[in-house]
Amino acid sequence: MNSIYDGRLLVVDDNEELCRMLVDMLRREGFGRVETAGTCAQALSFFENISAQEQPELVILDINLPDGDGFSLMQKIRLYSQTPVLFLSARDEDNDRLLG
Fold this sequence. Notes:
There is one protein chain. By secondary structure, the chain is α/β, with parallel strands linked by helices. About 35% of the residues lie in helices and about 25% in strands. The chain is built from four helices and six strands. The strands form two sheets. The chain has a four-stranded parallel beta sheet. α1 links the parallel β1 (about 10) and β2 (about 35). α2 runs parallel beside α3. About 25% of the residues are buried.
């Protein structure tokens, strides 16, 4: 990887419009390798089926997903990767912030 813009990013969110907006914004800023997943199962499959060299440099992860929650998904991702995770959520409870 020559620069941060060469890194692979994974956006996990079930809101297709928001996901598309995030991907567009990231690409406009120069990030060329942005991928998406809309469910916990898709995101987990992504990590199960890639090598250590192909792992993303960052995951942007929604907390509320149709088949689970981002907190549990992050714990499962940790079985495969130490990739940094940035939580994306409308939740504003202190408990959610601490858990994140």
